[in-house]
Amino acid sequence: MRVQSVEKAFRVLGAFDAMRPSLSLTQLAAAIELDKSATQRFAHTLTMLGYLSKDPTTKRFALTVKTLDLGYRFIRTNALVERARPYLLHISNTTEETVNLTVLDGAEVVFVSRMAGRHVINADIVVGMRSPAYCSAPGIAMLARLPPEEAVAILDSTERHPITPNTVWRMDGLRDKLRLTAARGYATAFEEMHHGDLSVAAAIVDAHGRPIGAINIATLRSRTTPEAAEQTYMPMVVDAARAISRS
User: Fold this and answer.
1) Is the distance from CB of 134 to CB of 140 less than 8 angstroms?
2) Distance of alpha carbon 121 from alpha carbon 198, whole angstroms
3) pLDDT bucket at 2, cuts 50 / 70 / 90
4) CA-CA distance, 110 to 78, in Å (whole number)?
5) How many domains are there within the chain?
6) Which of 42, 174, 218, 236 has its CA 20 to 30 A from that of 225?
7) CA pair distance 4, 110, nearest whole angstrom
8) 18 to 23, 46, 154, 229, 243: CA distances (angstroms)
């Protein structure tokens, strides 16, 4: 049984993003599809609890730093994050590259831990950020560990388009990538999401073989070739993923 008031409160918090960092009451009501009276009650309660702020001049609402508490509690209490941390740190120290731990949430991957190397690929990527699974190495690595029909259903549920000239986005190409990844146990994505970005990933699985996360190493094409990145980093991510899966 769903408690609608709780659901609506989270809809209010979820209305804010990079494109909408602050909202008027009218904008907030439209975003969450509630009338202004109900929206006012939820916004007022969340403001009193410290999760929203209201500008006294513009009357616009915005998230407060307190909203970080839930994310911080997740990071500090999640068993996968704790188990993976020493492996991410070791690989990052060894390679001086950026190493990420991601989980699959629908058709997206969510960054839940990140060890930035000396050669940061994209400084805009932070813990909590989401990316499309279809054009990322960790996304393909995790999808490939699902039953094929389940993976295809997830890919069919999201809008796909070419982000770069190298993006594999049509279903035939994605099916081929899933089959190849399932056969060899790791995935690659070379400049599919960002120009110059090379990524190698392997899935972390539970006792039933279902994916619960993925570890990937990201580097720059200016530092190495796709072939060299695959040859060098594949054993590292595969070994780390297996060790975390067994821990």
Assistant:
1) yes
2) 9
3) low
4) 14
5) 2
6) 174
7) 26
8) 12, 20, 25, 33, 37
Are 204 and 134 found together in one domain? Answer: yes
Q: What stretches of the chain show up as alpha helix (H) in DSSP?
A: 4-14, 25-32, 36-49, 68-77, 79-95, 137-143, 148-156, 171-184, 226-246
Say yes or no to pLDDT of 3 above 70: no
* 223/229 Cα distance (integer angstroms): 9
Other CB atoms within a 10 A radius of the CB of residue 5 amount to 11
User: HSE on the CB side for 125, CA within 13 Å?
Assistant: 23
* Residues 62 and 82 reside in one and the same domain: no
Task: Give me the pLDDT at residue 4, please.
Answer: 81
- Give this prediction's pTM: 0.87
Domain membership of residue 14 as a residue range: 4-68
If asked whether residues 56 and 82 sit together in one domain, one would say no
Query: Residues 111, 177: one domain?
Result: yes
Read off the pLDDT of each residue in 95-105 and give the average, rounded to a whole number: 96
For residue 199, give Cα distances in angstroms to 49, 67, 83, 111, 216.
41, 31, 22, 14, 7
Q: How is residue 189 annotated by DSSP?
A: E
Residue 207 sits in a domain whose CATH number is 3.30.450.40
pLDDT at 122: 61
User: pLDDT, tens digit, for every residue of 25-71?
Assistant: 999 999 999 999 999 999 999 999 999 999 999 999 999 999 999 89
